[in-house]
Amino acid sequence: xxxxxxxxxxxxxxxxxxxxxxxxxxxxxxxxxxxxxxxxxxxxxxxxxxxxxxxxxxxxxxxxxxxxxxxxxxxxxxxxxxxxxxxxxxxxxxxxxxxxxxxxxxxxxxxxxxxxxxxxxxxxxxxxxxxxxxxxxxxxxxxxxxxxxxxxxxxxxxxxxxxxxxxxxxxxxxxxxxxxxxxxxxxxxxxxxxxxxxxxxxxxxxxxxxxxxxxxxxxxxxxxxxxxxxxxxxxxxxxxxxxxxxxxxxxxxxxxxxxxxxxxxxxxxxxxxxxxxxxxxxxxxxxxxxxxxxxxxxxxxxxxxxxxxxxxxxxxxxxxxxxxxxxxxxxxxxxxxxxxxxxxxxxxxxxxxxxxxxxxxxxxxxxxxxxxxxxxxxxxxxxxxxxxxxxxxxxxxxxxxxxxxxxxxxxxxxxxxxxxxxxxxxxxxxxxxxxxxxxxxxxxxxxxxxxxxxxxxxxxxxxxxxxxxxxxxxxxxxxxxxxxxxxxxxxxxxxxxxxxxxxxxxxxxxxxxxxxxxxxxxxxxxxxxxxxxxxxxxxxxxxxxxxxxxxxxxxxxxxxxxxxxxxxxxxxxxxxxxxxxxxxxxxxxxxxxx
Length: 594
What we know:
- The protein is an alpha/beta fold.
- The chain folds into three domains: 2-162, Jelly Rolls (Sandwich), CATH 2.60.120; 172-264, Arc Repressor Mutant, subunit A; 272-301 and 314-513 and 527-593, NADP-dependent oxidoreductase domain (TIM Barrel), CATH 3.20.20.
- 43% of the residues lie in helices and 18% in strands.
- The strands form six sheets. An eight-stranded parallel barrel has the order 10-12-13-16-17-20-21-22, surrounded by six helices. Strands 1-2-8-3-6-9 form a six-stranded antiparallel beta sheet, with helices on one face.
- The N and C termini lie far apart (67 Å).
């Protein structure tokens, strides 16, 4: 329902669900929004921050908020513009300036309504809905009255819920005026003293009033508003960082960069790269994660044939390089890190990096079942020893959980039918115990021509009538496509893809599909690695596909996989280059540790 007046007045009421959620993004200029959630578990991202809204919560937004939605159930949406009703000109009537709108932008104004306020809101909403049927000269005034009633009710609730410690009208008005002035002047005024002079109060008076609220200081409030706008401009515009710095009132890019890094922990240009990569991942659903096998030990199974250096291996330098690359990967948008005890010091590197860098939004997966024994000797004959016994599980899980306290996924490393691990009841019960006690997901990784058979067997395993395995880490690539036959069986499981480059074999001249790969890489202006990764994403849509690189330039090339989409006929053409599982794994056995 929309009211379009003769003088540009705009007022809209809509009931939103998953089928018409596009109404949330269709925002006219100078429009204010009131979003009233009428069900639980509505998931929205506002200015890059995810929120989950429950029934009868209300959030107030302006045209400047960047809104994305992940899961919409039912919403009452209200929109109006300045011509219909200006909350600034009529602040004496409703008092929402600096509270619901034009203030506290660094903290979203959210309220929860119930009982009497809920009844008032429901009545006003129904009356406004009925008024849309009245096509007479009084319709505009009646709709404005209903809007005023809604806004006054929400303002009262906000004051009761968020300003309850401020009892005096004068102090209440000071907070509102400060909020409003910051919202309208943050680009040019950066200190509390700037605002104190505008409201004829001392900086100390303002600070004491904020202190009564038990919230952040007024200076922090100003800085958060500047940071909010900085993030918006970096994330949603193509403006240069120097241009953004000038727009936000900084004299030079260096001062702005120091300010931004102090608050965000990374430089503005790195933040832009991170947001770009994360948006790509969000749009494609599949994450590109980082497999840490080559980060924790200086050798892996691949096609390289470099001469082995006689230089002494410096473990300290190796670990420092590893942590540095993890930082680069994180800033490039990587959020899934996969490791294992058999990856040398990979778990140690990841643990130390987490302690030092303190990322808040990463996914960690590790495994048990192999022990690293090469001691960083590039000429070692044996690099790892396999053992799927209960003793190995207990020993390795204890160490892993001490290092990686926030691990989310724990897997059997390279489960096989021959090892008997899927029939070892003691091991299965221990894994189930770990699953329940630590509230993590249990999975397994597979290798070999009978990967599908192993997965089918694992899917049948239950403990206390509950499926044990939630995650399957599987080899799948242009040459080994057998996993497609289990796509339906795995649709409710998390699938992590490893060896997406077939240990480098997709680059070999003897590969029958190399010319096809090269043609597609030329068409999309990417490397063959991006073609390989995009094929995995397009055909399987896994939870994560792991990159095994150790340098930023290689990682950036991998990440280009999310910059394009293969056409259907190209996917079908790529499916023709596959080997039989038997041939693929026979060729893999011939590869050496490099």
